[in-house]
Amino acid sequence: RSSKELLLQPVIISRNEKEKVLIEGSINSVRVSIAVKQVRRGRGQRAGSSPWRGGSLTSLFSPQADEIEKILCHKFMRFMMMRAENFFILRRKPVEGYDISFLITNFHTEQMYKHKLVDFVIHFMEEIDKEISEMKLSVNARARIVAEEFLKN
Hints:
Blueprint: E1 11-14, E2 20-25, E3 29-35, H1 57-82, E4 100-105, H2 106-111, H3 114-152
Antiparallel strand pairs: 1-2, 2-3, 3-4
Pfam families: ARPC4
Family: Belongs to the ARPC4 family.
Subcellular location: Cytoplasm, Cytoskeleton
C-alpha cells in the first residue's frame, strides 16, 4: 500500500455507468471490486428518498422499481459480506463506490486452483444480476397476491 512501485495501474471495465468492475493488481495480490446496481447512497440520502422528477407515465414507476432493486441488492450484498469467512476471497467491506470486493492473494493461488478462482469471480458476476432479477420478480409476485387478497375482503 505504501510503495507505488508495488502497485499496478488499476483497470475499470464498465458496461454502463452503474455496472462496472475495478481490478487493482499488486505484486502479490489482486482486488476485484464490482458495482452491480450502484447501491451505495450518498451522504445524507436516506433509503427511499430518491429525487423524483415527473414527466412521462413510465417515469412514475421507474423510481419505485429501481428502489426495490437497490434494496434487494443491498440486502444480498450484506448477506454475503456477513459470511465473508466462508468465502475466503470475499472482503467484509467493499471499496468505496462499489458493492462488493474480492481480494485474491498469492496464498489463495497457492492453496486453490487459479482457474477455479477466476471461474468463481466470472460466474459470480454473471449470476448476481440474474439472482437480483429473480428476487425482484418474487417480491412483485408476492405483492400481487397480497393485494388480491386484500381487495377481496
